[in-house]
């Protein structure tokens, strides 16, 4: 990461937590720091971060065992799907057992989800039984904020379990509402009055846009409007998926794990014969040497045994979700 002053790091950490939805949301100096981060390639985007379930989307984590000679070809098919936001090669650090190596997340509108997953299976030339499907059963932690002054992370929804995504209530959004989602889910104008600029693009009043966004935030549809950074450029060059089999209360274990600031995401997922783990966590560190140390510390500190660490290798795709597109 290019040099940033202590004040600039404080500002970028604060802006990840979100801005107030007001006409002039930026404090003195914040906008210049955002513009600098964008020019430096540190800022992935500055926009709306939504709860996909409340927009009517289903999502799932999938894994596929792929021969080495087919890895890039299969990854290209997966990465080309508009509903896929992340696609990684992940391999176990400790175990010699054969596990799936190609991992990806898929999110689509509920009424299109099953057909979309079947279509992706067909394009991959796989059967449903070959693709590990691991939907979230409970979500303990989401919405990572990278602290640029330390290796710790902050969390806006600490340790609160939620229902399975398909059980989460959602409503039908009007075309006008969808247009607003599309306008804010990637990049807000980096100007003094971003919501006024957004309103002008849409041919609406600033107050109408502010009112809609405030209502969505109160309803939990919109988590926040804030900065999303490239974690590697922010100094967190290593990341891994930790998994454990929990013999007892998965929710209690999930709360303990989610309370650790080093954990960025934490979920319960179904335990499968082919993948006998049900508690998942993502961790990021500044070096690969720290990854295994942190995994062992989390296991011991949270009373978890029998786990495995899947280190992330090649990154085939990492993008922010684009909602209500026609692809």
Short summary of the structure?
With 327 residues, the chain is an alpha+beta fold.
How many individual β-strands?
Answer: 13
Q: Residue-averaged pLDDT, rounded?
A: 89
Q: Order of SSEs, N→C?
A: HHEEHEEHEEEEHHHEEHEEHE
Described by the principal axes of the CA atoms, the overall outline is globular
Q: From the helix content, strand content and strand pairing, which structural class follows?
A: alpha+beta
Instruction: Give the termini separation.
Output: 35 Å
Rg, alpha carbons: 20 Å
Q: Give the fraction of residues assigned to helices.
A: 25-40%
Number of helices: 9
Tell me which oligomeric state these chains represent.
single chain
Biggest β-sheet: strands ordered side by side in the sheet? 5-2-4-3-13-10-12-11-6
Major sheet size, sense and barrel closure: 9 strands, antiparallel
**Ranges with pLDDT <50 over ≥5 residues?**
151-167
Report the β-strand fraction as a percent range.
25-35%
Descriptive report:
There is one protein chain. By secondary structure, the chain is of the alpha+beta class. Helix content is 31%, strand content 26%. It is built from nine helices and 13 strands. The protein has a nine-stranded antiparallel beta sheet with strand order 5-2-4-3-13-10-12-11-6. Strands 1-9 form a two-stranded antiparallel sheet. A hairpin with a 6-residue loop joins strand 7 and strand 8. It starts with 5 loop residues before the first helix and ends in a 9-residue tail after the last strand.
């Amino acid at each position: 990461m290019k040099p940033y002053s202590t004040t600039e790091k404080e500002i970028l950490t604060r802006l990840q937590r979100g801005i107030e939805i007001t006409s002039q949301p930026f404090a003195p100096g914040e906008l210049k720091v955002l513009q600098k981060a964008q020019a430096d390639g540190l800022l992935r985007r500055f926009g709306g971060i939504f709860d996909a379930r409340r927009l009517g989307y289903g999502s799932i984590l999938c894994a596929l065992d792929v021969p080495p000679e087919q890895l890039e070809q299969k990854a290209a098919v997966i990465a080309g799907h508009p509903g896929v936001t992340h696609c990684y090669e992940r391999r176990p650090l400790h175990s010699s057992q054969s596990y799936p190596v190609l991992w990806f997340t898929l999110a689509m509108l509920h009424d299109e989800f099953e057909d979309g997953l079947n279509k992706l299976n067909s394009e991959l030339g796989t059967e449903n039984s070959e693709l590990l499907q691991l939907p979230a059963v409970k979500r303990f932690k989401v919405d990572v904020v990278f602290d640029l002054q330390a290796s710790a992370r902050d969390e806006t929804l600490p340790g609160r379990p939620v229902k399975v995504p398909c059980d989460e209530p959602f409503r039908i959004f009007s075309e006008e509402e969808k247009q607003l989602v599309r306008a804010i889910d990637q990049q807000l104008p980096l100007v003094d009055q971003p919501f006024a600029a957004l309103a002008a693009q849409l041919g609406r009043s600033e107050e109408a846009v502010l009112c809609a966004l405030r209502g969505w935030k109160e309803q939990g549809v919109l988590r926040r409007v804030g900065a999303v950074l490239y974690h590697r450029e922010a100094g967190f060059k290593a990341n891994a998926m930790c998994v454990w089999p929990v013999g007892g209360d998965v929710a209690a274990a999930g709360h303990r794990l989610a309370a650790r600031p080093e954990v960025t995401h934490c979920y319960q997922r179904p335990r499968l014969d082919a993948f006998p783990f049900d508690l998942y966590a993502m961790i990021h560190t500044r070096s690969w040497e720290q990854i295994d140390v942190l995994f062992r510390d989390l296991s011991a500190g949270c009373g978890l045994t029998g786990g495995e660490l899947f280190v992330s290798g090649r990154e085939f795709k990492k993008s922010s979700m684009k909602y209500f597109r026609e692809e």
